[in-house]
Amino acid sequence: MRGLTLLAPAKINLGLLVRGRRPDGYHEIETVLQMVSLYDEISIAEGGEGIDLTLDAPGLPEGEENLVVRAARLFCRELGKEPQLRIALKKKIPVGAGLGGGSSDAAATLAGLNRFWGNPLSRERLMALAVQLGMDVPFFLFSATALATGRGEILKALPSPAPPLWVLLVHPVRKISTREVYEGLKLGLTTKHKHISIRRFSVTTFKKGPSELPNDLERVTFKAYPLLREIKESLFELGALGGAMSGSGSTLFGIFPDREAAGAAGRALEQRKDLTVNLVHTLDTIPA
């Protein structure tokens, strides 16, 4: 029985601005999305009937609630195939953490099935399928670094940090609802006039001094979860050159001058039992 295995990377937001609420109920945003080297693993093989998804951790969505299943079913429907697939998902990206794990899994499933059956769909068609699954999903098929506008689905490729940035991800053991964060957001008049001005990221970007990357969702999330503000402050105290909350949280990230500095900060934060810490680096290509 033939099969393949894919890596689905996490992402961080190198700044996130919310422009306002759209007539369709979504929010207009501007954000720089950056893939990092924390991966879920997806294995795909033919066999059985329908879509048989095996999960390696309790509490994950199953059946049609899982984006991997929905992506596989959507792809098979596009090809007019009756699905006969066995898919195994090994999770390393925390759920509900602002790191895009579910979206990345869905994108990897689309790309994997396309490769599995000889690339019958163009990247443009895969992107059109991806947007049906969620606003973050197309990014994971597009570029390792991108400016996202609109609802997050309008993408422009950006140069990836060179050399790669060393990043510490700090995730408290709690899940945060993206919908609740956006519903609690009260936009100020100044939001429309702010811009993510730094679109070429490197360590030298932050050499003039520590820089808090803008994230309009922090003021809502930090109010509800004061621990997140405390973590962000700790990252800067431990030597981060830049940092912010990723997406709507709950992950905070710090950008460090090198791997050694990031590792030292990680070891300090790992002493706390209520935190998960991952040392990663930015990616410049989508994992094959």
Based on secondary structure, the structural category is alpha+beta
Would you list the SSEs in sequence order as H and E? EEEHEHHEEEHEHHEEHE
Q: What does the oligomeric state look like here?
A: single chain
Instruction: Determine the number of helices (DSSP H or I, runs of at least 4 residues).
Output: 7
Q: Summarize model confidence as the mean pLDDT.
A: 87
Polypeptide structure, described:
The protein is an alpha+beta fold and 288 residues long. The protein folds into two domains: 3-157, Ribosomal Protein S5, domain 2, CATH 3.30.230; 166-281, Alpha-Beta Plaits, CATH 3.30.70.890. It contains seven helices and eleven strands. The strands form two sheets. Strands 1, 2, 3, 4, 5 and 6 form a six-stranded mixed beta sheet that branches. Strands 8-9-10-7-11 form a five-stranded mixed beta sheet, with helices on one face. β1 and β2 (27-46) form a beta hairpin. α1 (67-79) runs parallel beside α2 and α5 packs across α6. The longest helix is centred in the middle third of the chain and has 16 residues, at 101-116. The radius of gyration is 19 Å and the shape is globular. The mean pLDDT is 87.
Outline:
This protein has 288 residues and is an alpha+beta fold. The protein is built from seven helices and eleven strands. Strands 1, 2, 3, 4, 5 and 6 form a six-stranded mixed beta sheet that branches. Strands 8-9-10-7-11 form a five-stranded mixed beta sheet, with helices on one face.
